[in-house]
Amino acid sequence: MELLGIFFAAFLINNILLIRFIALCSFFGVSTKIDTSVGMSFAVIFVMTISSAVSWMVYHYVLAPFHLEFLRTAAFILTIAALVQLEELYLKKMIPNLYRAMGIYLPLITTNCAILAVAFLAIDYRYDFLRSMVYSLGVSGGYSLAIVLFAYVRDRMALAPIPKWFQGYPIAFITAALMSLAFLGFTGMFGL
Amino acid sequence: MSLWKSFNQGIIKENPVLRLMIGLCPVLAVSNNAINALGMSVAVAFVLICSNAVVAMIRKTTPDEIRIPIFIIVISTFVTISDYVMNAFTPDLYAALGVFVPLIVVNCIILGRAEAFAYRNPVLNSILDGVGMSLGFALALISIGVIREVLGAGSVFGIALFNPAVAATIMVLPPGAFITIGVLMAALNKFENKVQ
């Protein structure tokens, strides 16, 4: 039950894009087309799950025993950058179909701050290994939900008559505000 | 490139937030009041100016193939310094900014300026570029912070202006950040069009 609470808190209530404001560059950048946002979502789910597992282990088995916690910023970002390279090589060789589906989104993930933020937040919340895995699944699921919904809205908006000054990014921000307002409605669900 | 131009371009012409659309996450997340916005601006300015200076100093000895990992190490050193300094001297601010302090390391403005400017220009120009970009970032962040705090909480820098009961609370909640920056960008578009 507690695990379910962690999952839904990360998935809906503290949605990483609309409520926590992390990884907004990709939110506005790749949501112009529906299929690019779906590709990005799968890449984020895949990389975030693996990288949060590895960075949890790096923190608890390498940094903490030697009292090197102050190195976590540098250690996490290098771990994630190396991991993305490894995953790319592995997928290219072993599962080429999945590699083609993720395409260029895999290398772009290195600069996606959501991946790094989840590694930090799981440490800050003092989650054990299982809880931090559930948390990262919730966060990446919430990321996918928000970005795919937003891509559909922007797709419809392409045909709408929008005032000249608001075309492009300004109206995208107003749309995101309305979606964020809708997600605020989940506050208090499951007693969280 | 002249020293004045290095300093000047980041403030309005290439404003990182409102023009280049980079470094958005901290702008939206910590602008719910003016004090948080000021604290974040100072932290980003420190990291940006120091990393620009160091990258410009080592640019002649940096091998081209591994420059990005080297930049990231330089940046994360300064982020760790500001993380620990803020934790020690301004614990309230540190708690309010939360995960966004370590996340300065992936702020696209800092790596972007290291790659696009400091790696190709002398130290003094790079420092001035850092100062100009930081001022542009601070200008956008603090103005959004002030607008949201006045409309949403009826105060500015914590000084009460009017009865908070009549303020629109939504402006200090997450949707308010999106509304403010959207309207600000539309206003900038209109203003620019009139000037031309």
Could you explain the architecture of this structure?
The complex is a heterodimer of chains A (192) and B (196). Chain A is an all-alpha fold and 192 residues long. Chain A has a domain at 31-142. Chain A has helices at residues 2-13, 24-29, 34-63, 72-94, 96-102, 105-108, 113-124, 129-157, 169-184. Chain A is globular and about 60 Å long. In chain A, 39% of the residues are buried. Chain B has 196 residues and is an all-alpha fold. Chain B has one domain (3-195). Chain B has a two-stranded antiparallel sheet with strand order 1-2. The A-B interface holds A 18-25, 28, 70-74, 77-78, 81, 111, 113, 116-117, 120-121, 124, 163, 165-166, 169-174, 176-178, 180-181, 184 and B 21-22, 24-25, 28-29, 69, 72-73, 76-77, 79-80, 83-84, 98-99, 102-103, 105-106, 108, 111, 170, 173-179, 181-183, 185-187, 189-190, 193.
Quickly describe the structure.
Chain A has 192 residues and is mainly alpha-helical. Chain A has nine helices and no strands. In chain B, helix 3 runs antiparallel to helix 4.
Instruction: Please give the share of residues in helix of chain B.
Output: 55-70%
| Sheet with the most strands, sense and barrel status of chain A | none
Strand percentage of chain B, roughly? under 5%
Radius of gyration of chain A: 18 Å
**Widest sheet: strand ordering of chain B:** 1-2
* Structural class estimated from helices and strands of chain A: mainly alpha
Gap between N and C termini of chain A, in Å? 12 Å
